[in-house]
Specification:
Elements: E1 4-9, H1 26-33, H2 35-50, E2 54-58, H3 69-84, E3 89-92, E4 112-114, E5 120-126, E6 129-135, E7 159-165, H4 182-186, E8 192-196, E9 202-205, E10 209-212, E11 228-235, E12 238-245, E13 250-257, H5 264-282, E14 285-292, H6 296-303, H7 307-316, E15 325-332, H8 339-350, H9 354-360, H10 362-366, H11 379-399
Parallel strand pairs: 1-2, 2-3, 3-4, 6-7, 7-8, 8-10, 13-14, 14-15
Antiparallel strand pairs: 1-11, 5-6, 9-10, 11-12
Bound molecules: manganese (II) ion.
Manganese (II) ion (MN) binds next to loops.
Length: 401
Amino acid sequence: MAAIRFLHVADLHLDSPFKGLSSIPKNRWQEIRESTFHAFNNVIQHALATKPDFVLIAGDIYDGENRSLRAQHLFQKGMEALGEGGIPVFICHGNHDHLSGSWVRFQMPENVEVFGRDVETKTLNVKGETVHISSFSYKERHIREAMHTYFPKANGQDFHIGMLHGSLEGNKEHDVYAPFRQSDLIGKGYDYWALGHIHKRQVLHMDPAIVYPGNIQSRHRNERGLKGFYEVTLTKNNTDLQFIPCSMFIYDQLEVSCKDIVHANELISRVEHQLKDYVESNGNAIIELTLTEITEETFEMLDTSSREEWLAIFQESMDQQNPFIILKDLVIDLPINQLNETLMLTDIWEEWDFTHWKLAVKELYQHPKGSRYLPSIDEDFIEEVKMESKQLLNKAVTRGV
Ligand SMILES: [Mn+2]
C-alpha cells in the first residue's frame, strides 16, 4: 500500500491586528503587522517545493469574522499558486472565520474544496489509494455541539482523515467549541485527526495521530516558541510527523544572569552578547528579558533608572540587527535574599483559573462607565496583570512599602 503525504496547517489568523504590540519600534511595525501573511507565504512555498498529495487547513484562516479584503485576496493568490502546482486543498472554517460573518465573496480555484456547515465527506484518489476526508465549517461563532458525533465511521479499508476545529471536553484554558474526548475520535477508526483551534502545538495521541499543529505565527506572548505546521506521511500502519517551522518571528523569554556584575557597562555588554547569540540561532524574535541572580548592589544600580530606560539601552545595540530582536518587557528579579517573599504571593495565582481572575477584577468590570474601556479578560490580559503585579511586588518588597 502506498504512503500518502500531506500538510496539516491550522489557525492562520491572516491579518491579525497585533493589538498588544503598540510599543514596537516604528521601523519594525510593518514587518510585524505583515507576519501572518509572511508565514502563510512560507507554507505555500514549502508546498510548492515539496509537492504533497494535498493540503489540509483546519480552520481560522482569517482572524476576523468580517474577513479582511486583503487577507482574502492574498489567500486566494496562495490557493491559485497551489492549483498551478497541481495540489488539492481542503478547508474548513472555524470560530474566527465562521460562515455567518459578512465578507466579499471570492471564488476559490478548482483545486480547493471548502467544507460546508454540516459534516460531509470528500473523497480523492492518491496514487491509487482512496482517501476520505470528513469535516465541517462553523456556521456561527459558537458551536457548542459535539460535532464529532456526525462524523461517519471508517469503512475499515481506504484512508480516513477527520478535520476538526474544536477542543477537548472540559478544557479550562479556552472556550470549548465542538467538544470531543480522545476516545470519541479514536472510536471512529480514522487514520489521522487534523485538529485546529488550540494554538499550542500538541500531539494528543499517536496511532491514530490526533494532532494540533498550532498556529503558524505567534501573535502575543502566550504563543511562545516555534510556530509552523506538520508534514504528515501516512501508511496504514505508520504515521510520520515532521514539524516545519514557518513563522516570521517568534516570541520568547530570555534570562540573563547578573552574577558578578558591578558596573552598568558590564551588564549592557553581557545582555548584548546574549541577545546576539540568541538571534543567531533563533532568527527574528520578540523577547521578554529577565535579569536574574541579582545582588543588593546590582539591584540598587538597576533601580536608579526606570525599566524603560534600561530596555531602551539594551535595545539600542540591537536596532540595526537582522534578524531582529525586539525587547518587549524587562523583568528584574528581586535580590536573592528577598526572592522568597514574593514567590509565596505569586504562587497563589498560578492556581487560579478564569473564574478566580474574573472575581478578582469584578468591581472594576462592573463599573457602569469604566467597564466599557477595559480589555476583555483573556489570557493576554491575565499575563499582563501578572507581569505588572510582579514588578510592583518586587518594588514594594525591596523598599519595605
Ligand atoms: Mn484559532
